[in-house]
Amino acid sequence: MKGGRQRGFIPLGLKLFASYVLLTMVPLALLGWIANSIMVGSVRSQTENNIRGTLRQMEDNVRYRIDDTVRITDMLYQDSMLVRALKSKEEGWANYDATKKVLLPKFWEAINSTDRSMRMSVYIKNEVYNEIYDLSKDGEDILKSNNRSFEILHLSRIQKEEWYKSLPKEQYDVTMKWVQIGDDAKFGRISLIRRIVDTYTPSDLKELGLVRISVYFNDLFDSVDAKKIMPGSRLYIVDEDGKVLHASGRDVDKVQAPAPAAGAEEAGKGSLVIREPLPGLQYSLIAVIPEEVLQADARKITWLTVLVCGISMVAIIGVALFVTRAFTKRIGKVISVLQSFRRGDYRRRIQYKGQDEYSMIADALNELGAQTDNLIQEVYLTKLRKKEAELETLQAQINPHFLYNTLSSISRLAKFGEVDKQHQMIMNLARFYRMSLNDGKTIIPAADELDQIQAYLAIQQVKYGDRVEVSYQWDERLPGYMTIKLILQPFVENALEHAWKGDRIRISISAELRPGIHPVIEFKVADDGIGMPEGLAEELFRETGRSRQGYGIRNVHERIRLYYGESYGISIETGLEGQGTAIRIRIPARRSLDAPDSPLRKRHG
Fold this sequence. Notes:
alpha+beta, 3 domains, 5-stranded mixed β-sheet, 17 helices, disordered C terminus
């Protein structure tokens, strides 16, 4: 492109920096990714191992509770005195004595050998002995009211029960079964069933009775607590049919337990499922750990990796910048000066101390800039003097015309003896010119411009009387904002000279602050006169237009553009003849004497 960088231009410093960064950051990023993958995998594996270890501890605790329950049945199963008593057919006193001295002490000893809550029911085949049991209300949980108790019942009570019929054939010291029977399911219990047999003939074990020990699930699975694994995990104890017997963890009531053969996907997308069989039971312990819980430590590793890589990258970038700067600093100074020259700033100089080729380039550029700047200053000063002279001429062309008209009006009032109106007009004229002179200032407060036009119209209302009606709408936010002076008077004067429709005219003057990125002040002078003929509004802005009517408009328009730039100025709105005219004047809203982007301010630099 002309006067600019060619398309596809890449600075030398950027090339050096990019090369260095790419050659170091790409291997660093790859190394970080590999290290993170290895560490995340290791952490996940370690987490799973920890979970399995915790589950094994839970299994051991459950096994202890099971073994403790089995131990109680062992005390009865292997008690030969109890077996002899249960085989005895003697009645009367012998029966009573056996019950008191053998059965009850044996059963109490067994049930009191633990501090756990349980109820033992002993079903005996020998109906010579009387039943001993507690009476309870229907639906009452006896175990809850008596945490350790036993009862003696006849075996005939349960011989027709399906669970009794389904018991496997007796094998010495092996056959036993955990099952929910009776009201176990209702009260959240499970029972250990074990026969009491006559072991006198091991090959022919004869059933003498049956022991049922009922314990609460919460007692048996007290150690199965999801909090011991990880927050947010869930634990289930399920039977071989998938029925949940015990659950622990978040939302276990809302989330269905995994099916017996389900994998992680079936248990819940993105979850780890670990299934462990419980020893001595036909149940399984299932742990469901959501993926987000598993990833908690992995995310820490990832963030740590990102942090280390980020710090390394920052260090690499710092080194790269330092190395690049060492090669491009000198070239950058030359480019910076050349770019300043392109922007028109020939006062920029290279400050360099050295005795090499670069010092020769610096001296040559400094000398070139100084010579070019001197030539530009000479041309600029000539042009500036010309513009300022034009501005003074434009401002001076308004005042004599108004003064001539006003003095003529004062003369007519003196001639007809209207002393009061003459005095009022003279005072308003003095007020107008006092504000117009304004100590020679061209930029005045916007409020002074209003006072100025009010003084002018007061003069005209003395001249025209009630034939001229004036209204003002002035934005209360305008105090403090500045404007060039005498931008309203030419338009009011033009309306009074050319806009009459009949013998009356109405003129409205307004000023509004319009905020925004580039706030502006908009003045408006509107009349209800005859309007302008078609094409006249455009002609007034041309030098070849009607000199008398267009002079004041061009005067103000050129002054605004001279002070504020090409974006501001005057616009004229007029319909067909007879519909009046509205003049809009736009200047930037500034509180200082000159806007930062004012052409005059730029020239004065």
